[in-house]
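Troubleshooting: if your tokenizer reports a length mismatch, compare against these two reference records.
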Amino acid sequence: MPDVEEETGIRKGGRPPSPSPVSAPPVPQRPDGTVLAFDFGEKRIGIAIGETQLALAHPLTTIAAEQTDVRFEAIGRIIAEWRPCLLVVGLPVHMDDTEHAFTARARRFARQLEGRFNLPVELVDERLSSREAESMLRAAGVAAKRQKPVRDQVAAQTILQDYFEQHARH
């Protein structure tokens, strides 16, 4: 006669066997700490900074260089100084959500950041971030001809603030 446990899966003490451990996929955790955001461009890269705890973005600097090695050297110095836990890159797309040539370049830049600095990188829709930056600068009383040196870092600020709003803790 077969054993009761074999046949029913119930132990002689009347309790079913312990379930086998099943590993659930880890819940992605948003890192806590400093976050750097990038508004990638061919001639300039705007950079903003913020802290996840405050969820408030601030313009930091603009890298005005077209040479890749110069750009990444400057980014490396900023990362060494601020020690971010996360990088955010603005992803340009058309208003109808379709991608264009610069979308691929921004994605490539994000992959390069991740590979070179071994930090997680998230992409954030950056539609209208430059226009919003111009509007913010105008509202702050910055004349149009004086906006160019800071417009990209203010655009990065809007990208980072959008990231914080999308990932607000509840």
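Reference record two:
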Amino acid sequence: MLAIGSDHGGFELKKALMDVLTKQGVEFKDFGTYSPDSCDYPNIAGEVCRAILSGACDRGVLICGTGIGMSMAANRFSGIRAALCSDCYSAEMTRRHNDANVLVLGGRVIGPGLAEKILEIFLNTPFEGGRHARRIGMLDSIASCENT
């Protein structure tokens, strides 16, 4: 199951992507926001990330105006590897090499056609493993360090 969420800046793009997911038969859970009214993106990012970390959802999609805020919020969660993508190549490589489990999009940066292609690539590209798995382990080690 895919977790999806947006703030007000990503609301319209989220609606468009949910229509595409529904037509393709992809199961998803919408974590809000449910209107274009102003809201706080960290709350939505937290809901999506907790759903992934609990195992209720396999991967997630977060959308805000630029994608930057959602990326920053999501990557605060140990075990989340969120990637802001604005092109198809980045979406492919973040799955192949980084095993990203959250795709972040900027609703005011890219249009629905490109977002649909990026999402399709993100959902259908496997992680290569191998030397990249070692690097994911290194990222996990960094995430578990405490700042002193």
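Descriptive notes for reference record two:
- The chain has six helices and five strands.
- The chain has one domain: 2-144.
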